[in-house]
Amino acid sequence: MTTAEQSAPALKEIFNQQRLEHIADEMLAVYPGFDRRGFLKHASQGLAELSVMQRLARVSDSLHSVLALDYETSLGLLEALAPRLDSRFVCMFLPHYVASHGTHAFERSMQALKFFTGFGSSEFAIRPFLRSDPQRTLALMQQWALDPDEHVRRLASEGSRPRLPWSFRLEQIQADPTLAAPILDALKADPSLYVRKSVANHLNDITKDHPSWVLDLIEGWSLDNRHTAWIARHALRSLIKQGDRRALAIIGAGARAEVELLDLRIEPPTIRLGERVNLSFTLASTAAASQKLVVDYAIDYVKASGATSAKVFKLKALTLAAHARETLSRAQHIRELNTRRHYAGSHRVHILVNGECLGSTQFELLGED
Question: Does 146 score more than 80 pLDDT?
Fold first, then answer.
């Protein structure tokens, strides 16, 4: 572990005591009657034990506990507060307030979420409205998909993602992706990378439940537009990793690769947790014409039971000229993650080209002494 990794603060520390005081001071500036002391007492209680999203919710709840005002008046104050805050992520407690206390006032709450998303995304806060009133909320989000502000357009796509991380699933959209399809269609050639990433992630979510629907949709698009082609490539990333032939064909790599795998190496062959392995190999074309290749690699991670589970990693997409060679390499850090624990044993590594395994090697992860 590097010094930077050891010293990096946890994400939840974005809502530390100093930040709570900043919020309190700025709120006092826009509302002289604000109970600063009461807010800080409520917001700080048990702070150390709370996750980042729990801290975000705590700030919202603490504001509500001390603002003895009607919802409309409170929103006006929070809208004045938004541009005074010093972090986009921190600003996300503002739309959280709307989701928690504004479901009774649909139109005013939607105005507030649209406004707040420019300061800190309203992607989580729109979801309770999508669950309770999907028809009206989706109709409005279709209008947002045409908005001149990229933050609002992104909200239309990101907020309606069926599998948005850190949020609950939208079961209706997950079951029927056509509900949000007009939003995706409006954004399929968006000039903003910020928006395109969201559209691609939304479509990638759908591939987990309806892969054929996504493939049918993208096969109907014109990929001559570079923005649309970018979305298609990134939307299909999970299917490409799985070697799906239709997905590979869409990006021009559907044919079987005409290559030989040479000099496959992994060094060192034995490591301990926290160290790196270096993977390298050469692809030699056996074709008489250039070919598009999608090169990935998979690691069979050892599980607690001793069985293995494969994880595919993207390496490179390239066009290999006739009879040419390309040497590729990648360093892989084997360390504990929130999403993966590591266990001692032999870890097989497979080289995948256009969805086909061309060869394998392995490294040994040693256990603790």
Answer: yes
